[in-house]
Amino acid sequence: MRLAQEHLIIEKVGPVLAVTLNRPESLNAFSPEMIQGLTNSLRKIQNDPDVQVVVLSGAGRSFSAGGDVKTMGQASATQIYEHVGKLNELILTMKESEKPIIAAVHGFAAGAGVNLALACDLIVAAEDSKFALSFSQVGLVSDGGGSYFLPKLIGPHLAKQFFFSAEPIPAERLYQLGVINLLFPLEKLQEETTKLALKLAHGPGKAFGKQKKLIDHAMTASLEEILEQERLTQVLMVQTEDHVEGITAFKEKRQPAFKGK
Questions:
Q1: Alpha-carbon span 52 to 44, nearest angstrom
Q2: Is 30 exposed, middle or buried (0-12, 13-18, 19+ CB in 10 A)?
């Protein structure tokens, strides 16, 4: 199934939903239609058992240039407030979703395009890709959650350096820092990302979703809170079909056939 929305291409490949940012002429800079379409698509598949994993990528030469510089300076303060509010809704929807979301980054990711990737659960990138937190170049601060995500990954001092300098960061550097999970040659990026997505899609989907929530909440919660959440969540997980299948497969010395249930 392949659907073309305004500035988005959405394709279902088995249990994987492939979402492609589709404004290649502007390096997939954000538009209101793109942001709202992404939010709607993620909300729609939240309770869809046929979709287990989401892959987010960009059409053309790059992942995303983030905010559209060509239209900057034309909006009122009220319009900016509303626009960033819609971006916030998208980021929160991504974090609230119990479906793993993989960013497949090639070419260039800049500004809020970087932050969109950071909001995903895993980042796979082409070896020659570059990332730039370019907000300060146009006299702005980060939006889209970068001020939250990046310091937790690399620490506040290095995050400030990247935001202040706005210089392109090679993917290899971010891989070494643990921001990027996997690096591949550009020609292998789509193939390897699809392999990873399918592997996750055939795993214990409910366990992945709950683990995602636990890890994300642990970024701000106390140890006591997470211990209690783990306890309560585990009570739910031992009642799932995937848990029964996992135990049965272990006893029968075979690979489990998880169904995400």
A1: 13
A2: buried
**What percent of the chain clears pLDDT 70, i.e. is strictly above it?**
98
Domain shared by 50 and 171, yes or no:
yes
Question: 247 and 185 share a domain?
Answer: no
Per-residue pLDDT tens over the stretch 206-259: 999 999 999 999 999 999 999 999 999 999 999 999 999 999 999 999 999 998
Domain residues for the domain of 236 are 205-251
Instruction: For 134-165, write each residue's pLDDT tens digit.
Output: 999 989 999 999 999 999 999 999 999 999 99
Q: Which of 61, 37, 182 is nearest to 117 (CA)?
A: 182
Q: Is the pTM of this model over 0.85?
A: yes
Q: Look up the CATH number of the domain holding residue 117.
A: 3.90.226.10
Locate the DSSP E strands across the chain.
Answer: 2-5, 8-13, 16-21, 53-58, 101-105, 108-110, 122-126, 130-132, 169-170, 182-184
The neighbouring-strand residues paired with 103 are: 56, 123
CA 245 from centroid of its chain's CA atoms: 29
Token pair of 117 as six digits: 């990737």
Can you give the length of the chain in residues?
261
CB 119 within 8 A of CB 147: no
Instruction: Report d(CA 33, CA 228) in Å as an integer.
Output: 40
Q: Which residue has the tokens 């214990």?
A: 204
Q: Is residue 259 part of a domain?
A: no
Residue recorded with tokens 């366990």: 207
Number of domains comprising the chain:
2
In terms of Cα–Cα distance, which of 148, 64, 48 is closest to 103? 64
Residue found under tokens 């319009």 = 79
Is there a contact between 169 and 103 (Cβ–Cβ < 8 Å)? no
pLDDT band at 4, cuts 50/70/90?
low
| Mean pLDDT (whole number) for 14-43 | 95
